[in-house]
Amino acid sequence: MTAPRPRQDPLRDPRFFADPYPTYDQLRERCPVQRIPTGSGGHHAYLITGHAEAREAFTDPRLSKDTARFFADRPSNRDLHPAISRNMLASDPPTHTRHRRVATPLFTTGRVRALRPYITRVVDDLTTAWQPGKEVDLVAELALPLPITMICELLGVPEPDRAELATWSHALFDATDTNIVDAASHRIGDYLTDLVATARATPGEGPLHSLVRDCEEGDLDRDETVSLAALLIVAGHETTTHFIGNAVLALLRHPEAFDRLRRDPDLIPGALDELLRYDSPVSVATFRHSTENLNIGGTDIPAGFPVLIAPGAANRDPAQFPHPDHLDLDRDATGHLSFGHGIHRCPGAPWPGPRQKPPSAPW
User: Fold this and answer.
1) Is residue 355 part of a domain?
2) If pLDDT is split at 50, 70 and 90, which confidence band does 163 have?
3) Which domain does 236 fall in, by range?
4) pLDDT per residue over 216-264, tens digit each?
5) Which of 65, 81, 133, 214 is exposed most, by the fewest CB atoms within 10 A?
6) Alpha helical stretches, state H, the chain
């Protein structure tokens, strides 16, 4: 089957940035797997917007995440630090398996539960200054500082360094200038290289020392340890920030649902899956490319092409979730793909504990 092809990159349309879901609906209705132009340089990729097709693609070993392999014979003027460009997200088994074996225990339900008193204290500290009736920038005053504080605590990053580390992490995603992005990657990579080197050289029982020991036992070398630490900070920080912002915005736009959660906070754990489905913190998953010819959803994908899986679109697929544009707190949304699926599913999925009652907040 040959899918219809848009003439321009639909993911760069200003209307997409304002509200991606009408664009996703049009693309999915046309064909859930289709070739689209990417950027302005005449390049193309395959975009997957259907839920069944996305779930299949997430588990297909012919779709590689090894970015170094894809770009090996393609010229580039980028200068990302290796800790950012070569990490667990950009690898396949067996390298990915070694990294994930170390990363997964960091986010077990038990470990997250042990951090709950600290999480609650941080939330209370961040919201103490909020005054009833006064306007608050939720992103700046909670959604940004909370996850970076949690992850830095998990890794044992000294408190005086956390604000600067958050600034560098934010620049990786928000800067439109690739030189700024590359420079931020080196600041993060260099900082974490020094931090890991100090932990390896000095005995201790702190979180970073535990991570270093886990990496050594998991056969990760120094550079791989640095890349894992960088991934935890960068990926965990941004996605959690997006989720907090998206979830609260959805509730503000659905005051009846918001009031219901206020009246009965015990409903919150079940509601989190629906909030993750309704407005995914990751609209398009990280880079994949086809290593051989394959067919997904009736569409032929040749070898050597980037493949973009869109959880944001898959989570609004009416074939999986009836009336997908409706926020329904009673819906069973556990099949959402906001954390991905398969061997690359986000190891931080238990964070902040979707099945657990979260810390209290003033709203």
Assistant:
1) no
2) confident
3) 10-344
4) 888 888 888 999 888 888 888 888 999 999 999 999 999 999 999 999 9
5) 133
6) 14-18, 20-30, 51-58, 67-71, 82-85, 95-103, 109-127, 138, 145-155, 159-174, 178-201, 207-217, 222-253, 255-263, 268-278, 311-314
Count of structural domains, the chain: 1
Is pTM beyond 0.85 here?
A: yes
pLDDT at 112: 74
**Dihedrals phi, psi of 10, to nearest 5 degrees:** -70, -20
Confirm if 162 and 149 have CB atoms less than 8 A apart.
yes
- Give residue 53's pLDDT: 98
| CB-based contact 314:49 (threshold 8 Å) | yes
Is residue 243 one of the residues assigned to a domain? yes
352 domain-assigned: no
Distances 31 to 52, 239, 325 between C-alpha atoms, Å: 13, 28, 19
Q: Of 113, 96, 199, whose CA–CA distance to 155 is shortest?
A: 199
Q: Which two tokens stand for residue 227?
A: 């890349």
On whether residue 193 sits in a domain, the answer given is: yes
3-state secondary structure of 86: coil
Distance CA 225, CA 219 (A): 10
The one-letter amino acid code at 298 reads G
Q: What long-range pairs does 322-330 form, CB within 8 A, spacing at least 24?
A: 325/21, 327/250, 327/254, 327/257, 327/274, 327/275, 327/278, 328/274, 329/257, 329/260, 329/261, 329/267, 329/270, 329/271, 329/274
51: pLDDT strictly greater than 90: yes
Span 261-270, mean pLDDT? 92
Q: Which residue has the tokens 């996850």?
A: 147
